[in-house]
Amino acid sequence: MLVGLSGGADSLALAAATAFEAPRAGPGAGAVIVDHGLQHGSAEVAEAAARQARELGLGPVLVLPVTVQAEGAGEGPEAAARSARYAAFDRALAETGARHILLGHTLDDQAETVLLGLARGSGPTSLSGMAAQNGPYLRPLLGIRRRQTRQACLDAGLVPWEDPHNSDPRYGRVRVRDTVLPILERELGPGVAGALARTADQLREDAEALDALVRELAPEICEPAEAGIAISVAALAANPPALRQRIIRFVAESEFGVSLERVHTLAVARLVTDWHGQGALDLPGVRVVRQHGWLILSRPGHAHSKGPSRSHGTSRH
């Protein structure tokens, strides 16, 4: 396994704990440091983190420079940096043969993620926060407070790097960290961050259960259609809104790679629950029309056929 190491207190404490535990648990443990190149002296910061990893006994230690490109990708600078970082992590997994990368996200990070999702109206998927395991990525510190990782570094004689971006109020996460959460904890009590993290766990369990139901149900109520797919209106109407909208979102994403927002899924659902002869909906990346008891989804600009097609020798998607 590899520790995703930035040199900050959270990942440095995780690196020290991993270096201590790995020899006892069996697997080898190394580190990967991603140099985003976004700040002056970033190469020196990356090398300092690599040196600390080696001194802790981790190996191999990889330093991977990346180029962050936000313009033209539809991403802001934070999202673009994250995309570049995870691409580097994938490269590190391939180069080393490691099975997992450990990330230093803490309970405080989880609480911040939930608050940001709540403020943006992002729905249960966003409010469920970060999972302890997501594919090869593990987050073993989600139950640990940030102050504990700082104390762990102090106790071990480690000097963490202080990322200036972590105190820059231009970033929403920094404002949540430095202003919003402290106010909530002062006014409502010291357990707010923990309560937000518990809420994320509960919502993630609910979302995973509903998503599993959708994956089972969707093939039973969908049919191939010319240049697209058709969903039974009667089947959608028979399901509660939580499943109905998840089915619409799931089909759009799995067939067309489109992530519909809530306003879009509500508009599609009205073709089922409030039908009075509406025309086709032209949504980002997908066109939806109701015909003969089916919702037919296709690429924008495609002229719909009269309904689902069974000419391919199958009646199920």
TrEMBL record:
Pfam families: ATP_bind_3, TilS. One of its GO terms (cellular component) is cytoplasm. Residues 232-295 form the tRNA(Ile)-lysidine synthase substrate-binding domain. Its EC number is 6.3.4.19. Keywords: ATP-binding, Cytoplasm, Ligase, Nucleotide-binding, tRNA processing. It is found in: Cytoplasm. It comes from the Bacteria. Residues 1-178 form the tRNA(Ile)-lysidine/2-thiocytidine synthase N-terminal domain. The keyword ATP-binding applies. Its main location: cytoplasm. One of its GO terms (biological process) is tRNA modification. It is an enzyme of class 6 (ligase). GO terms for molecular function: ATP binding; tRNA(Ile)-lysidine synthase activity. It catalyses: cytidine(34) in tRNA(Ile2) + L-lysine + ATP = lysidine(34) in tRNA(Ile2) + AMP + diphosphate + H(+). The keyword ATP-binding applies. ATP binds at residues 6-11. Ligates lysine onto the cytidine present at position 34 of the AUA codon-specific tRNA(Ile) that contains the anticodon CAU, in an ATP-dependent manner. Cytidine is converted to lysidine, thus changing the amino acid specificity of the tRNA from methionine to isoleucine. The N-terminal region contains the highly conserved SGGXDS motif, predicted to be a P-loop motif involved in ATP binding. Belongs to the tRNA(Ile)-lysidine synthase family. NCBIfam families: lysidine_TilS_N. This is tRNA(Ile)-lysidine synthase. It comes from Cryobacterium psychrotolerans.
